[in-house]
Amino acid sequence: MHRHFLRAAILAGLLFPFPSASQEVRKDVQELYQLCKHESGKEFCLGYISGVADHMLLTGVFLRAHGNGLKEEERGLLADLSACLKAATSFEGVVQTFIDWAEKHPEEGNLTMHLGVVEALSEIWPCD
């Protein structure tokens, strides 16, 4: 999956460019995790993760509807950027999924927040 994840990260960077060095510094998974664990950061955490999750779920819907018409490499790339829930969950549940993933994968603490959420949700709710 890491090979596809690298391509997905590159595509995500092209589609959703991060701020330049003169703008706000990118936060990483560890910082987002800390925000999610502290009361003062819970609103930001919920908004940020639910926004990324919404995009991933929409990509998953597209993949399910049109994936058969894509080349295998394109399908794999979209799958890495998608989430396909197996059952209904709340946004708070999605946040808890990220927290659980971050606790299990401390080695991923330096990933950007966006890529960490993508990695967590696509690992937990892959689109088969």
Description:
- It contains 6 helices and no strands.
- The protein has helices at 2-15, 29-37, 42-66, 72-80, 91-104, 113-124.
- It is globular and about 45 Å long.
- It starts with a helix and ends with a helix.
Secondary-structure map with pairings?
Layout lengths: L1 H14 L13 H9 L4 H25 L5 H9 L10 H14 L8 H12 L4
Helix pairs in contact: 1-4, 2-3, 2-5, 2-6, 3-5, 3-6, 5-6
Query: What kind of sheet is the major sheet?
Result: none
The secondary-structure element order is HHHHHH
**Rounded radius of gyration (Å):** 14 Å
Kindly report how far apart the N and C termini lie.
Answer: 13 Å
Number of helices: 6
Low-confidence stretches: 19-23
Mean pLDDT, as a whole number? 84
Helix content: 55-70%
Strand content: under 5%
The assigned structural class equals: mainly alpha
Would you report the number of β strands? 0
Shape: globular
Give me some keywords for this one.
mainly alpha; 6 helices
How is this structure best summarized?
By secondary structure, the chain is mainly alpha-helical.
